[in-house]
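Practice problem: predict the structure.
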Amino acid sequence: IKWRNQADGTALGTQKLKVNKGEATIFTHKMETDTDQEVILYCARNIKDMGDLSILKPATILMAEAYRVTKLVCHSVNLTNLDLSECENLVDVDLSGCTQLGTGVTAQGTLDVSGCDNLLKLNCEDTAVSYVNLNSSGSNIQEMWLPKSIRNILAVKCRALHTIGLPHDHKCSTIKLQECPNLTAFGDLMWNESAHRYDQYNGYYLSGQLQELYLDASFDLETIEIFYNMHINKVTLLNLKNTKELILGMRINAKD
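Answer:
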């Protein structure tokens, strides 16, 4: 395999590996760049893993042809545009630290993963994303970690979803969940091994600027709490068989 820079034809090196019949071999090349050049991957339909793309510092990632890729990792502060519409085999997407993601003209703050049928984990912390578009017919997603900039959360028939990671000082105004029966956490509850308990509460993460909470057969805990919130004006609870208590206010832990 000969690697070269398409822009100026500069040779980047030659890699030779012995490939036995019936064996799969991985050819790799590390390229560092701070320029605005394009990186084009031909035969993208055969690619399953691209590794961490952060070193390329991309501003745009278009993956319509790379529909067999199962994992996407990128922490580029330059990334503004992302197309995952055809990536139905993606399982894990980590875009944390892409601080400009969501500011692109075409995206308008939306991260669209509605076509990622097999997606299990999504991390877009520390981005400018204001809305994550999941498949309205249902999703296999298990956890998603969201940025402070998130404005609305809508999840329907996400039956495997157990965590929606919200930062405490988020800007989310509306949360609507329907048929998400396994959801138990709205953030990192921080398990304390020595004390055998969690150090944080869901109500801590449901604070911020939340105005409307709609739960239908979702987050069916015995107690639902919303703390430190002066903005909440509408709470709808439907088909919650286990919920006995709703707390709107502040939890005070008494100590001896």
